[in-house]
# Entry
Amino acid sequence: MQNSTLFVAVSDTVTGPVQSAGDFTNNTATLTNLDIRGRRGSDTPALINSNIAAPNILNVTLASIQTDNGATVFGLTAFQFNRLLRRDSATTIVPPAPGFTQDEDFIIRLL
# Structure
């Protein structure tokens, strides 16, 4: 997923990463499963400069992330994540409280 946007129930006026709860149009909307694997046999990261947002994101698996994006922030935003697995770091990440987790330019924002 490169230079892409996947928004669920996000206002049409939002063009970059979702910044606040007011950017969502339906707080009960849910993205159930998101699995970004990349191409088999490719060294290209699976997630590059892309924004994904939904009020509720239940299960996310990311194979690899290009975290250096030339100081342009990108990433995931939700009110709730049930499980977020980063395979390139072999860790399950769930932000423990509202706020964000950042790795270079890649951000996981929990509103």
